[in-house]
Amino acid sequence: MAYSRLFEPGQIGSLELKNRIVMPAMGCSLAESTGEAGARMIKYYADRARGGAGLIITEITRVDDETGVGTPNQLSVTNTHMIAQLSRLVEAVHAYDTKIFVQLHHPGNQTPSRLIGGKQPVSASDVTCKVIGEQPRALTTEEVEAMVRKFVTGAVIAQKAGLDGVEIHAAHGYLVSQFLSPHTNKRTDKYGGSFEGRMRFVTEIIMGIKAFCGPKFPISVRINGNDYLDDGITDEDAIAQAKYLEALGISCLNISCGTYDSGATIIEPNYFQEGWKRHLAANIRKVVKIPVIAVCNIKHPAFAEEMLEAGDVDFVGIARGHLADPDWGCKAAAGKEQLIRKCIGCMECFRILNDGLPLGCTLNPVLGREFEYGDEKLVRNGAGRTVAVAGAGPAGMEAALTLAKRGFKTILFEASDKLGGTVNLAAIPPNKGMLKEFIETMEAQLAEAGVEIRLGTAATPEAVREAGAEAVFIAAGGKPVKPSLPGIEKAVTAEDILAGRAAAEGKNIVIIGGGVTGLETAECLAPDHHVTVVEMLDKVGGNLYPSVVLHLAQEIMKNGGAIAKGKKLVSIGEGEVTVEDTKTGEQAAIPADTVVLAMGVRANRPDIDAFREAYPGKVVLVGDSARPGQIYDALHSGHDRAFVY
Fold first, then answer.
1. What's residue 263's pLDDT?
2. Which of 9, 67, 441, 603 is deepest in the core (most CB within 10 A)?
3. Which active-site residues does the annotation give?
């Protein structure tokens, strides 16, 4: 379909934008250790500009080196040394007629002391962020005045580097937001108390930027439409703030919501619906005349178009959509929305970032590695030579796609009648429908790349030889782990349950394994059964993002289920399982009419010896066939091995 509103030019202050697509600020930790914008960060943003964004807002960019560090390898505008590399970033983005703002940021109490050299975090008041768990000290009046100057200095540096504007991050419970919100602002000086007092900090920042950068230099302010805290900013408070900020002469408002303490509302996992918070922006847009940008968990161009048509926003913020697919805008403009890899809300990007690593994505193995693995770095030496890929799960599909881009004639063998492998099962639990769309997208991408797909055809050595392949990538997935324990033959696997090959019979269901598969299978069964999840470790969910684990656990327990951590399976008997406490060794029985195994998988390598004999040195293992893992691991494995083959 044509997206006439989405690709209509827009205006922010005196700045004209080529379309209504904004890539809002997201931490990426791709800057140099000095805080400069190095080659990796420049390539990351340039790819999103090339991909069709009309405006890019940089990651949280620190204005204070003492207490304002938000992530490792964070972009900085704290001194003039940053100007040279910032100007190169601007040039790279402007080459695609995309505009770029710097987001001025200070985390306040939402940063741990380890990131700021062991110093105590600072805030508007001494209110502790429960997630960080470190009590901050309240900035003195003089320190707040000095902090205003640091924000203004950051804006001046950005302007000198050629940035098109700045955004003040006054949302998400960070420092400016801590002054705006009654939840964190308990001050009695001029920066607290009344509404005007709480607004004074951001007011002085805005007026300072205007004084030093000129009245026409665009200023965006990102605010919370709601804190989702009992004593925080409400919808009505946000409307009042928006009207006040407009009166100060800012250029636009960027509406988001939530704080660290309000949990998943700040960055929503897969169980939040597309557009769930659009009302926050719509309510504000009704009362202001300046443009409104809003993030609304947007996945699809059609939904973004509908929000613009409805008048809820003036610009749509496509955040994680630009992580999953940097070409989101160009594909939508070309009417190829089926080729967009749409964010699945797994939260892997932020789990990785919180571990201190550069940004990564389950569906985009190039994210954060654009400088090393961008398409222009592909060695296109396939020259029509044939390579076979055995297995059309995520690793096999990604390997086939990458090989085809390199110019190989790629034949993808799949023994079943559809693409996707076990992703088809992963798409069955509640809120996992975006995985089904991912398979459909991969099918479209494979077709566009010219990959030959042979469904219902096992990749035997004979079949591969007959196809004329010079090499074979083994992507046969994994086989469920079944330990040798008494009564194990009575159990079924989570795959059997999800695929409908086995039924959960009786009232009491015990699931052995509290990883993602075990928890999601339990979520499926909990409404109709009493489900107990048994996990050997002291935590469930593996590497899943905490908010996702919490949601799954709540869904299980609200239906009367239970989670038993630190327990290992000993045996399966009639109507019960015996488990052993991993610390005390004490054994106990749990009623079990059906036992479901979700203990992970082991590598599946069919005909591996025959393949290695037929193709010495030309057999490549990818995905679970190489090393069992999650979808993230499979896609990265398939991409990287095909990239260097």
1. 87
2. 67
3. 174
CA gap 527, 634 in Å, rounded: 31
Strand (E) positions, 277-355? Answer: 292-295, 315-317
Average pLDDT, the chain: 97
Phi, psi (5° rounding) for residue 503?
-115, 150
pLDDT per position as a tens digit, 259-310: 999 989 999 999 999 999 999 999 999 999 999 999 999 999 999 999 999 9
Neighbours of 273 (CB within 10 A): 12
Domain boundaries, the chain: 10-335+348-355, 378-479+605-644, 482-599
Question: Given this chain, do its domains 378-479+605-644 and 482-599 carry the same CATH topology?
Answer: no
According to DSSP, the residues that pair with 565 across neighbouring strands are 535
Looking at domain 482-599, its CATH superfamily turns out to be: FAD/NAD(P)-binding domain (3.50.50.60)
Q: Quote the pLDDT of residue 2.
A: 85
CB 62 within 8 A of CB 105: yes
Crossing angle of helices 141-160 and 83-94, in 10° steps, is 50
In CATH, what number does 378-479+605-644 get?
3.40.50.720
Report the share of the chain in percent with pLDDT over 70: 100
- If one counts every other C-beta atom within 10 angstroms of the C-beta of residue 483, the result is 11
Structure-token pair, residue 114: 């380890």
Q: Which CATH architecture has domain 10-335+348-355?
A: Alpha-Beta Barrel (3.20)
Q: Give yes or no for residue 343 having a pLDDT over 90.
A: yes
